[in-house]
Amino acid sequence: MTAEMGYVTETDARLAAWDLFLETQGTLLCRLERELHAECGLPLTWYAVLLRLHDAPDRRLRMQELVGPLMITKSGITRLVDRMVAAGLIARTTCPSDRRGAFASLTEAGSATLQQATPIHRRGIYQHFGEHLTDDELRALTHVLTKLMASAPPRHHAPACLARTWDDS
Protein backbone atom coordinates (compact mmCIF):
# COMPACT_ATOMS: atom_id res chain seq x y z
CA MET A 1 0.00 0.00 0.00
CA THR A 2 1.30 3.41 -0.80
CA ALA A 3 0.68 6.91 0.50
CA GLU A 4 -0.92 7.92 -2.81
CA MET A 5 -3.60 5.26 -2.21
CA GLY A 6 -4.61 7.16 0.91
CA TYR A 7 -3.09 4.82 3.47
CA VAL A 8 -0.97 6.16 6.27
CA THR A 9 2.26 4.61 7.48
CA GLU A 10 0.50 3.15 10.51
CA THR A 11 -1.86 1.20 8.25
CA ASP A 12 1.06 0.09 6.09
CA ALA A 13 2.80 -1.25 9.20
CA ARG A 14 -0.33 -3.18 10.20
CA LEU A 15 -0.68 -4.65 6.72
CA ALA A 16 3.00 -5.59 6.67
CA ALA A 17 2.62 -7.26 10.07
CA TRP A 18 -0.45 -9.11 8.81
CA ASP A 19 1.41 -10.33 5.72
CA LEU A 20 4.34 -11.47 7.86
CA PHE A 21 1.96 -13.23 10.28
CA LEU A 22 0.34 -15.17 7.41
CA GLU A 23 3.67 -16.01 5.80
CA THR A 24 5.09 -17.19 9.13
CA GLN A 25 2.03 -19.30 9.90
CA GLY A 26 2.12 -20.91 6.47
CA THR A 27 5.83 -21.60 6.68
CA LEU A 28 5.62 -23.14 10.14
CA LEU A 29 2.60 -25.28 9.26
CA CYS A 30 4.37 -26.53 6.11
CA ARG A 31 7.45 -27.50 8.13
CA LEU A 32 5.33 -29.31 10.72
CA GLU A 33 3.40 -31.05 7.94
CA ARG A 34 6.57 -32.22 6.15
CA GLU A 35 8.11 -33.60 9.33
CA LEU A 36 4.96 -35.35 10.50
CA HIS A 37 4.43 -36.89 7.07
CA ALA A 38 8.08 -37.91 6.67
CA GLU A 39 8.37 -39.54 10.09
CA CYS A 40 5.00 -41.25 10.47
CA GLY A 41 3.15 -40.77 7.17
CA LEU A 42 0.49 -38.59 8.74
CA PRO A 43 -0.81 -35.37 7.20
CA LEU A 44 -1.20 -32.50 9.65
CA THR A 45 -4.97 -32.31 9.07
CA TRP A 46 -5.24 -35.98 10.00
CA TYR A 47 -3.34 -35.28 13.20
CA ALA A 48 -5.78 -32.45 13.90
CA VAL A 49 -8.79 -34.73 13.43
CA LEU A 50 -7.28 -37.43 15.64
CA LEU A 51 -6.53 -34.88 18.35
CA ARG A 52 -10.03 -33.37 18.22
CA LEU A 53 -11.59 -36.81 18.47
CA HIS A 54 -9.28 -37.80 21.32
CA ASP A 55 -10.36 -34.72 23.28
CA ALA A 56 -14.09 -35.15 22.52
CA PRO A 57 -16.56 -36.81 24.88
CA ASP A 58 -16.63 -40.54 24.11
CA ARG A 59 -13.87 -39.77 21.57
CA ARG A 60 -16.42 -38.99 18.88
CA LEU A 61 -17.86 -35.93 17.18
CA ARG A 62 -20.55 -35.25 14.65
CA MET A 63 -19.10 -34.61 11.22
CA GLN A 64 -20.35 -31.02 11.26
CA GLU A 65 -18.36 -30.40 14.46
CA LEU A 66 -15.14 -31.10 12.55
CA VAL A 67 -15.91 -28.64 9.73
CA GLY A 68 -15.50 -25.27 11.51
CA PRO A 69 -12.43 -25.83 13.66
CA LEU A 70 -10.50 -27.40 10.79
CA MET A 71 -11.60 -24.72 8.33
CA ILE A 72 -12.57 -27.38 5.80
CA THR A 73 -15.75 -27.43 3.73
CA LYS A 74 -18.45 -30.02 4.42
CA SER A 75 -17.53 -31.93 1.27
CA GLY A 76 -13.84 -31.64 2.17
CA ILE A 77 -14.40 -33.12 5.62
CA THR A 78 -16.41 -35.96 4.09
CA ARG A 79 -13.51 -36.85 1.77
CA LEU A 80 -11.00 -36.48 4.62
CA VAL A 81 -13.05 -38.74 6.92
CA ASP A 82 -13.50 -41.27 4.09
CA ARG A 83 -9.71 -41.52 3.70
CA MET A 84 -9.16 -41.79 7.46
CA VAL A 85 -11.85 -44.48 7.74
CA ALA A 86 -10.16 -46.42 4.91
CA ALA A 87 -6.87 -46.14 6.83
CA GLY A 88 -8.57 -47.52 9.96
CA LEU A 89 -7.82 -44.44 12.09
CA ILE A 90 -11.42 -43.42 12.65
CA ALA A 91 -14.84 -45.00 12.29
CA ARG A 92 -18.02 -43.46 10.97
CA THR A 93 -21.35 -44.30 12.59
CA THR A 94 -24.81 -43.02 11.93
CA CYS A 95 -26.56 -40.83 14.44
CA PRO A 96 -29.54 -42.70 15.93
CA SER A 97 -31.52 -39.49 16.44
CA ASP A 98 -30.80 -38.06 12.96
CA ARG A 99 -30.36 -40.53 10.08
CA ARG A 100 -28.76 -37.81 7.94
CA GLY A 101 -26.14 -37.16 10.63
CA ALA A 102 -23.00 -39.15 11.23
CA PHE A 103 -20.37 -39.43 13.92
CA ALA A 104 -16.64 -39.79 13.46
CA SER A 105 -14.99 -41.69 16.29
CA LEU A 106 -11.42 -42.51 17.19
CA THR A 107 -10.34 -46.14 16.72
CA GLU A 108 -7.60 -47.91 18.66
CA ALA A 109 -5.36 -47.60 15.60
CA GLY A 110 -6.12 -43.87 15.48
CA SER A 111 -5.26 -43.49 19.13
CA ALA A 112 -1.97 -45.35 18.62
CA THR A 113 -1.14 -43.19 15.60
CA LEU A 114 -1.85 -40.04 17.59
CA GLN A 115 0.43 -41.27 20.36
CA GLN A 116 3.20 -41.96 17.82
CA ALA A 117 2.79 -38.59 16.04
CA THR A 118 2.61 -36.38 19.12
CA PRO A 119 6.33 -36.37 20.02
CA ILE A 120 7.17 -35.53 16.40
CA HIS A 121 4.68 -32.67 16.38
CA ARG A 122 5.86 -31.37 19.75
CA ARG A 123 9.49 -31.46 18.70
CA GLY A 124 8.65 -29.53 15.53
CA ILE A 125 6.72 -26.88 17.46
CA TYR A 126 9.65 -26.42 19.79
CA GLN A 127 12.32 -26.38 17.07
CA HIS A 128 10.52 -24.12 14.62
CA PHE A 129 8.68 -21.88 17.06
CA GLY A 130 9.34 -22.19 20.77
CA GLU A 131 13.12 -22.11 20.84
CA HIS A 132 13.16 -18.83 18.89
CA LEU A 133 11.24 -16.91 21.56
CA THR A 134 12.43 -15.60 24.89
CA ASP A 135 10.09 -15.95 27.86
CA ASP A 136 9.19 -12.24 27.55
CA GLU A 137 8.49 -12.58 23.82
CA LEU A 138 6.36 -15.64 24.45
CA ARG A 139 4.31 -13.79 27.08
CA ALA A 140 3.90 -10.78 24.75
CA LEU A 141 2.89 -12.97 21.80
CA THR A 142 0.45 -14.93 23.95
CA HIS A 143 -1.06 -11.67 25.20
CA VAL A 144 -1.51 -10.31 21.67
CA LEU A 145 -2.98 -13.53 20.28
CA THR A 146 -5.34 -13.89 23.24
CA LYS A 147 -6.50 -10.32 22.68
CA LEU A 148 -7.16 -11.04 19.00
CA MET A 149 -8.98 -14.28 19.76
CA ALA A 150 -11.19 -12.53 22.31
CA SER A 151 -12.49 -10.29 19.55
CA ALA A 152 -13.47 -13.20 17.26
CA PRO A 153 -16.80 -14.99 17.55
CA PRO A 154 -16.19 -18.60 18.73
CA ARG A 155 -17.33 -20.14 15.44
CA HIS A 156 -14.50 -18.33 13.66
CA HIS A 157 -11.72 -19.52 15.91
CA ALA A 158 -8.83 -21.11 14.08
CA PRO A 159 -7.90 -24.77 14.35
CA ALA A 160 -6.04 -24.79 17.64
CA CYS A 161 -5.60 -28.52 17.29
CA LEU A 162 -3.13 -27.96 14.44
CA ALA A 163 -0.74 -26.32 16.85
CA ARG A 164 -1.66 -27.79 20.23
CA THR A 165 -0.05 -31.00 21.30
CA TRP A 166 -1.67 -33.97 22.87
CA ASP A 167 -0.68 -35.16 26.31
CA ASP A 168 -2.19 -38.28 27.80
CA SER A 169 -1.46 -37.21 31.37
Summarize the model shown:
The chain contains 6 helices and 3 strands; from the N terminus they run H-H-E-H-H-E-E-H-H.
How would you characterize the overall build of this protein?
The chain has helices spanning 9-40, 44-55, 63-70, 74-86, 108-128, 135-150, and strands at 60-62, 90-95, 98-106. It is mainly alpha-helical and 169 residues long. A hairpin with a 2-residue loop joins strand 2 (90-95) and strand 3 (98-106). The protein is globular and about 55 Å long.
Largest sheet: 3 strands, antiparallel
Specify the structural class.
mainly alpha
Tell me the number of strands: 3
Specify the overall morphology: globular
Determine the number of helices (DSSP H or I, runs of at least 4 residues): 6
* Computed Rg: 19 Å
Write the layout of secondary structure elements.
Elements: H1 9-40, H2 44-55, E1 60-62, H3 63-70, H4 74-86, E2 90-95, E3 98-106, H5 108-128, H6 135-150
Antiparallel strand pairs: 1-3, 2-3
Helix pairs in contact: 1-5, 2-5, 3-4
